[in-house]
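lol forgot to send this yesterday, sorry. struct tokens for the thing we talked abt
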């Protein structure tokens, strides 16, 4: 944690150095301009899931296949249905799990791994509407607590992290580096987490469903199984194989 905070401090100092220089020199208008510009840059970096402004992020894979990812599990209703669907299609996926839900349903998390799927860190409590605004201490607790939960329940530590809603700030990468995690985003989504119209969701997915795609889907929503089944059908039509994580060229 100490090393993480040191990195946060130095990054913040470097980012705000032009503002400090202008203030010391008495250039108030220039300082204000730097402040506004810095705020705009930080906002863009926070709201863009695939930007590398704060550090490395993976949003596509190598090879001819695709990577299926499912966020927000485990869930006692959707997880068994999802696992059965993936088995029938002989497909593998990466499940980004919420620590609190794993604590509640540890056997579901173990079943995901038992069936040959990979598991990633999706924060301990999934504070969807404020994750991007968390300070260094709270950010560390969200990521580190989930890492501890998954390691305790599954016996191995995940190596991938996904931010809730994909929005993250400059405090995330120092924590990931300290915990041995890498950040994964996506380049193919249908907004199934908010839109319950399956056909509209599948139409959005279809636009970017091509080799190299990292597909974002969600558990714990009533349309989860239907969206996944439609996605798997589209993949079969296009002869695209859902790759296991260890074959994704990451």
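and heres what i got for the seq, position by position
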């Amino acid at each position: 944690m100490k090393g993480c905070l040191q990195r946060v401090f130095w990054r913040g100092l470097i980012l705000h150095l032009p503002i400090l220089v202008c203030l010391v020199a008495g250039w108030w208008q220039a300082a204000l301009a730097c402040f506004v510009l810095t705020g705009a840059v930080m906002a863009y970096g926070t709201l863009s899931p695939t930007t590398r402004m704060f550090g490395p992020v993976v949003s596509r894979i190598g090879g001819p296949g695709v990577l299926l990812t499912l966020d927000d599990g485990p869930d006692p209703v959707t997880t068994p249905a999802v696992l059965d669907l993936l088995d029938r299609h002989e497909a593998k996926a990466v499940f980004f799990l919420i620590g609190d839900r794993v604590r509640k349903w540890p056997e579901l998390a173990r079943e995901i791994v038992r069936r040959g799927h990979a598991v990633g860190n999706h924060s301990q409590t999934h504070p969807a509407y404020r994750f991007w605004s968390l300070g260094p201490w709270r950010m560390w607790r969200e990521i580190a607590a989930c890492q501890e939960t998954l390691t305790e329940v599954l016996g191995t530590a995940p190596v991938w992290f996904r931010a809730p809603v994909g929005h993250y700030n400059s405090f995330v990468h120092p924590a990931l580096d300290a915990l041995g995690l890498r950040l994964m985003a996506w380049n193919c989504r249908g907004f199934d987490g908010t839109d319950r119209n399956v056909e509209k969701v599948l139409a959005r997915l279809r636009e970017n469903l091509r080799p190299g795609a990292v597909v974002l889907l969600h558990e714990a929503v009533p349309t989860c199984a239907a969206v996944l089944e439609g996605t798997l059908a589209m993949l079969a039509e296009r002869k695209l194989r859902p790759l296991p994580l260890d074959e994704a060229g990451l």
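Strands lie at 67-73, 93-97, 118-121, 160-161, 182-183, 188-189, 214-218. anyway ping me if u want another try
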